[in-house]
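Appendix B: complex inputs.
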Amino acid sequence: MAEFSAAVYQNEFLPDGGTDVNAIVTITCQGAGTAGQSGAGSAGEIIIVDTSGSMGPSTMAAAKEAAQAALAEIVDGTYFAVIAGADRAMLAYPQVSSGPGMVRMDARTRQEAAAAIGRFVGSGGTAISTWLDLAGQLFGSVAEVTQRHVLLLTDGENRERPGRLDDAINRATGYFQADCRGAGTDWQVAEIRRIAQALLGTVDIIPRPAEMKAQFEEIMRNAMSRGVADASLRVWTPQGAEVLFVRQVSPTVEDLTNRRTPVNPLTGDYPTGAWSDESRDYHVAIRVPAKAIGQEQLAARVQLALGSDVVTQALVKATWSGNSELTTRIDQQVAHYTGQAELAQMIQEGLAAKAAGDEATATTKLGRAVQLAAETGNDEATSKLRKVVDVDSEETGTVRLKRAVDKADEMALDTASTKTTRIRKEPTS
Amino acid sequence: MTCPSCGAALAPGARFCESCGAPVGTTAPGPAPVAATSGDHPLGDAPISAPTRKPAGTLPDPPAPAGRRPCTECGGEVGADLYCLECGTKAPSERDHFEEHPASWVAGVCDKAVRKNRNEDAMALLAGAEPGSRAVLIVMDGVSNSIDSDVASLAGARAAREVLRVPLPSGMGTPESRDAAVRKVLTAAVAAANTAIVAVTDPDSPNPASATFTAAVLEGRRITWANVGDSRSYWLPDAGRPVQLTTDDSLAQAQIADGIAREVAESGPQAHAITKWLGRDAEDLTPTVGSLEVTEPGWLLACSDGLWNYASTPEEMHAQVRAAATADPAGPADPAALALALVAFANAAGGHDNITAAVARVDLGQNDQTPTPAPAGTSGGEPSDG
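Resulting structure:
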């Protein structure tokens, strides 16, 4: 049985008249087990491979091999299906036209599915909305499947009427999760990130076909280790308070503020999807009415809920104090993740400005990103940024845009922008 | 054997003194040990009864009743995490905020106050069920720069309560003998409080706990008080002139005695420096004692400086009681609401120190009131003198 624990990091002391409370809540899950094995329902996995005409021979060959490797990672007994995606979605396996669209994994079905994948041929366009909709139908055809996960691979830009993809994302949101990967550099990071963020999954670039197999195996292994099918971050705030934002800040930055489902007038749920043995950090910012110096009050109860069961809770407090030594300190974790969230924003906005030809804005934003990456010790972001800009000074954030940039490096910077590092060890001062 | 009242020799088994007529022996009213003293010769520090000298153990902070008492701020339900489920206000611990309501006409609130981190005030109340019968209000204020004064003040107040659990003695019939007997009991109550404080004080404490003491006892129409330090008792009649019963043992009070205006003295830098206190390092435990016969309905109030800081004169305090009484939908005679209102007033006024307010409602009974002239029904005719 999975066990959850919560820890809160904050400076609870507010100055006279202070209203804004910031806290980092770390939620840790242990003993999650394996997807679909908790007895509460079965897990379902759907692999979607882009089979549009744009898939070159080497990419297609690698995609087939990777999808077959992913099959090997799916635990026996798990329901699964394989979709070939082009300008419409085709159910490649199981080859049925009615009834349940997923089958349980065993040696035979794994082999049959691998054979079906081996027959993929690239042709046609890219209509990702149809892929998502078919995945939703397949999950819906097996009532027993309660934990739903998709692995989606594409290599190109979506070619649909504006709005179609967003509608499909909306239909899938809250129903299944999706980890998305882009092969090569002809796909749109922002577009695929939209899918992954809404469907509580990851996005990344696979620049070279040779890396595809390892990535697929890892994604599927991770999916199979998520023994807790679905959980919500439940946030209670006192009457008269306002939730400024709720963000996941580790392992990646995901703004959850607008994804609130009200539980009661004071409480809302934010989706977190399935959990494996892992630790995630959330940044919660609450505005409460100021109280007199010396008063203490609760600014938020941050809980993890499995259905209606609250499995762990952290208390975010506010204490008004006249002691400026207490009130002016900023919690290290809060400062760290505030910087990391801004880092993600600066990278994305800087790259968008660069793409739009606004070099002045791009230089400023990416310069700030370099500065933040250095300050918060995000070495991965620093090294990825250095492939896009020449750094004159990390301290001041003075950079120049590189004249010749590998498109894959720029996309890798973009997809990795939301990845955060955990805080460095407390300085021993 | 001699008469406890006049000292004359008694015959074995006598129930009354042959010389002065005072009752003696087993039928004597009131606690015998007290009755056995002469007014001018109190028994010094000797124990008057066993229970008062029983060393009080350290009273643990009782656990807060989770989810039971509604939120003090909004009245909402308090969660298992001891924060209100509605407004998030932290539920005070039992020690930080407690209320006593021993009878319908007596109640008190002892509160940490918004600006303090700890409640070093203490309170212990007693009351007979019959309104106006008998009430004991004890308030102690632990000195904030001494160690563990919160533990000490509560232990002291509860020990003093044990001494005052039985009615005050009435002496041998003369006001002098009664006053002496009462003084003896009140002195014993202070001594018991002090014993309890010393008992909970770490023998090695570099800064032993100390506290003030005020007790107000109402028995019928008579209020008796005793005081050490700067906690206070007031008599606040509904219509008549309000009075501060106790006199502070403080530098401010000494300055007032020297002719300095009260508002100047009480706002000076040493306003809260007390000249007498209870505790291991106490120099003088003799309380100032007094009594008053009340003639009209009103409120008896015992409080700490956390309250009177914001309404020091009897008139100011009276105005607060009136304001609370008019604002209270439960009517002017609800002591619990009044005590809460007084604490709320002090918190709203700044709440810089722990606040204790204990009140007893005095509604003189039908029998006690000035008899209205009876209609001359029996005579039936005009007086005539022939």
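Residues 26-44, 49-67, 367-386 of chain B have pLDDT under 50 and may be disordered.
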